[in-house]
Design goal:
Layout (H helix, E strand, L loop, with lengths): L6 E5 L6 H12 L4 E3 L5 H8 L5 H11 L2 H6 L2 E4 L14 E7 L2 H17 L9 E2 L2 E2 L2 H7 L3 H9 L8 H12 L4 E4 L3 H12 L23 H7 L1 H21 L9 H28 L1
Parallel strand pairs: 1-3, 1-4, 2-3, 4-7
Antiparallel strand pairs: 5-6
């Protein structure tokens, strides 16, 4: 393999369509060319099972444990635990990418996903709990600030003690170094750029869809969400601007969306998810 081919690092921001992208890339590229950095699945999860310490402490020891041959085979790194700076383990050019979502839709998607897990009797994220109780969406909106930019800041090593103005400046500076900043709202177009670079089919179906929407209309909350999450909205606006610049610079294909076989597959996955959700809820009720 040519040492001139770049390594792409996709930072997976939760609830931005990263699961669909990850699964699509895995199907197209195979496990050998793709390195998944998740605590719950893949090689990093298996490494954590046999080592001491948490994911934050273990990510660098895991990367250091990989052979040069393993690293040379990798064309793409992705996962919730991927971070800006991981390029130091590769001897090739590294190109970073991430996808973001409008803050109000991100909050609703995160809440719906956690509410579905709760209804199925599964564990939920601590962000959704207050004094051990599951919050209503109104409470969730009131008690959390700038969660999306906080996750991105953590993945790029941003100092959390900085003021919001400085954090916005630093995030803007860092994101402008990214090869691609994509938007969930126009995922087909943004993913098409990445797919073209990797030489794979750009058609993308939706996956990891929450089968039941507990919050269907966020419009009554948008003003309050914007008031409480100014940094998230500012970062999102910067990302929208940089997304357009990326697409113009990279001249990616437009209109690459959910068509043909991939669209049918997406609808089947959505139906499967709904059936699975109903069965789990029924079992939970019977056990209760």
């Amino acid at each position: 393999m040519s040492e001139s081919r770049p390594v792409y690092v996709l930072l997976h921001v939760p609830k931005t369509g990263g699961t669909a992208i990850k699964n699509k890339l895995l199907r197209e590229m195979g496990a050998g060319r793709m390195l998944s950095l998740y605590e719950t699945e893949g090689p990093f999860a298996r490494y954590l099972e046999t080592s001491s310490g948490d994911a934050e402490a273990g990510i660098d020891s895991f990367m250091a444990s990989l052979s040069q041959a393993d690293l040379d085979a990798v064309d793409l790194v992705t996962g919730h635990n991927a971070y800006y700076g991981i390029h130091r383990y590769f001897k090739r050019e590294t190109r970073y990418a991430l996808f973001v979502r409008s803050p109000e839709r991100w909050l609703a998607s995160f809440y719906n996903y956690q509410a579905a897990r709760r209804e199925m009797g599964e564990s939920v994220h601590e962000l959704i709990l207050r004094d051990g109780e599951f919050m209503s969406f109104e409470e969730f909106v009131e008690h959390h600030r700038n969660a999306m930019s906080a996750f991105i800041g953590d993945r790029v090593g941003l100092d959390t003690t900085l003021s919001e103005d400085v954090r916005l400046q630093e995030l803007t500076r860092l994101l402008e170094r990214f090869h691609l900043v994509g938007l969930t709202e126009t995922m087909g177009e943004s993913f098409g750029v990445l797919a073209q670079a990797l030489g794979i089919d750009p058609r993308l179906s939706r996956e990891n869809i929450t089968p039941k929407a507990y919050v269907t209309d966020v419009s009554p909350y948008v003003a309050r969400i914007r008031e409480l999450n100014e940094l998230d909205f500012a970062v999102y606006e910067r990302c929208r601007e940089w997304n357009q610049a990326c697409l113009e610079r990279l001249e990616g294909p437009s209109g690459a969306g959910d068509t043909g076989t991939e669209a049918l597959r997406g609808r089947c996955l959505q139906l499967y998810g709904w059936i699975r959700f109903q069965l789990k809820r029924l079992l939970h009720m019977l056990r209760g």
